Amino acid sequence: MRVKPALTLLALALAAATLPGCGGDPADPSTAPATAADTSAAPVAGAEADAPTAPPSARTGLGRAAPSPKPTTVALRTGNPDGKATVPAEARAVDTSRPTRTVGSGTAASCTSAAVVKAVAAGGIITFDCGPAPVTITMKATAKVVNAHGPRIVLDGGGKVTLSGGGSRRILYLNTCDPAQGFTTSHCQNQEFPQLTVQNLTFTDGNSTGETIEGGGGGAIFVRGGRVKVVNSRFVDNRCDRTGPDLGGAALRVLSQFENKPVYVVNSTFTGGVCANGAALSSIGVSWTVLNSVFRDNRAVGTGANPARGGTPGGGSGGAIYCDGNTFTVTLAGTVIEGNSANEGGGAVFFVSNDRTGTMSISSSTLRRNPSRGFETKGFPGIFFLGAHPPSTTSSHLS
Predict the structure, then answer these.
(1) b vs e for 207-222, b when ≥16 Cβ sit within 10 Å of the residue's Cβ?
(2) Which backbone phi and psi does 111 adopt, to 5 degrees?
(3) Which of the chain's ends, N or C, has fewer CB atoms near its CB within 10 Å?
C-alpha cells in the first residue's frame, strides 16, 4: 500500500481549499467586480478629531477593501409597496458587493462621523460594517465630495445605517462649482462627474438653516453639478431655512445636473420635512423622475411666494416638491403624495417653467389631502403649474 502519495494528495487538497478565489461566479451578477476609479490609500484632509486611531485598514475606510460577500441588506421600509412603475437600469441600486472602502470595523463604535467624512472625500463605492444592529451616526461635520475623486461616489447603508445631522448641520454635500472642493472642468455647471448615489440609507435631522452657498437649502443633501440618484432610502424630519422666495429642499436640493438628465428618486420615503419651499425636494432648472416613492407630512412654511410680495420674506410653495427654472421635466409614477401642505402655492407640487417649455407627467400615482393655502391650478388639486401644457395624468387620483 502506497501511503505517502495518498497523504500528499490529501495535503494538497486541504491547501487548495483554503486559497482565496480569484473571481466571482460569472453566473451570479452579484459577485461581479464593481468598477471604482479611486482605490488610493492616501489620507484625506479635513477629517475630524474622532477619527479612528487604529492603523490604516480597508475596513476603516482608509484603503482598498478586500473582496467580500455582498453585504446583507435589512428590509428597510421605504417607498410605495404598491408602486408598479418600471425602473430603468440607470435608476436602479448600484452593485456594492465589491466596495472600494468600508466605514466601520464591525462595531457601532467604529462607525464615526469622521470615518464617513473621510470615506466620502476619498470617493468610490462605500459600505458600512457597524455590527449586526441598526446604527445612527450623528455627523459632527458635513461629508463633502471632493470633485476630483470618484468619479462615482456610492453610499450604501445596507438598510441598517442612519446618518443624522443632529438638528444642526447638513449631512452630505456635492458641488462641482465650489472652489473649495476643486474645479475639474472649465464648465462646472454642466459636467458629467462626480456622480453620487445614496441607497439603503436613512437621513434624519439634517439642517441647512443659515447656509448661504448657492442660495442655501438642502437640509440633508445639497447637490450642484454632476449627477445624483436616491434609491431605497428614507428622509425624516429634515430642515432648511423657513423663509426665502426660492430656496428649499429640506431633504434634497439639486442644481445644474449634467445635460439636464433627470435626478432619479426610486422607492424612497420623505416625511416631516420643513422648509420655506419644497419641504422634501427642491431645484432650479433640474428634471426629476420619481418612481414608487412616498411623500407625507412635509410643510412649506414660508410666506409671500416668489417673487416675494411686498413686506414678506417670500416662500411657502411646494409642500413636497418645488421646481423652478426654464426647460425641465417632472415625472411622477407609482408615487403617493399625501398630507403635505404649502402656505402659498402647490401643497403637493409647485412647478414653474419660466419660459413655459417645461412638462410634467403623473401616472399610476395618488395625490391627496395636500392643501395649497394660497393658490393652485384649477383641476389639479395640490398642484400649481405653469408650463408648456397642463400636466398629463394617467391612471392617477388627485384630490
Answers:
(1) bbbebebbebbbbbbb
(2) -95, 90
(3) N
Rounded Cα–Cα distance for residues 147 and 192 (Å):
11
Judge if the upstream peptide bond of residue 33 is cis by omega within 30 degrees of 0. no
Residue type, 272: G
Q: Give the start-to-end residue ranges of the domains of the chain.
A: 206-399
Under 8 Å between Cβ of 197 and 153: yes
As a whole number of angstroms, the distance between CA 309 and CA 387 comes to: 22
Percent of the chain residues past pLDDT 90, beyond the cut: 81
The label of the residue with cell 412649506 reads: 300
DSSP state string for 354-374? TTS--EEEEES-EEES--BSS
Instruction: Look up cell 437640509; give the residue.
Output: 219
Angle (CA) 273-278-280 rounded to 5° is 40
Nearest CA among 124, 95, 90 for reference residue 29: 95
Residue-wise pLDDT for 233-285, tens only, equals 999 999 999 999 999 999 999 999 999 999 999 999 999 999 999 999 999 99
Query: How far, in Å, CA of 113 to CA of 121, rounded?
Result: 12
- Which of the residue ranges 45-54, 111-120, 152-161 would you say has the lowest mean pLDDT? 45-54
In this structure, what C-alpha cell is assigned to residue 10?
490529501
Q: Considering the entire predicted model, what is its pTM? A: 0.82
Task: Quickly list H helices, the chain.
Answer: 3-18, 113-122
Residues recorded for the chain: 399
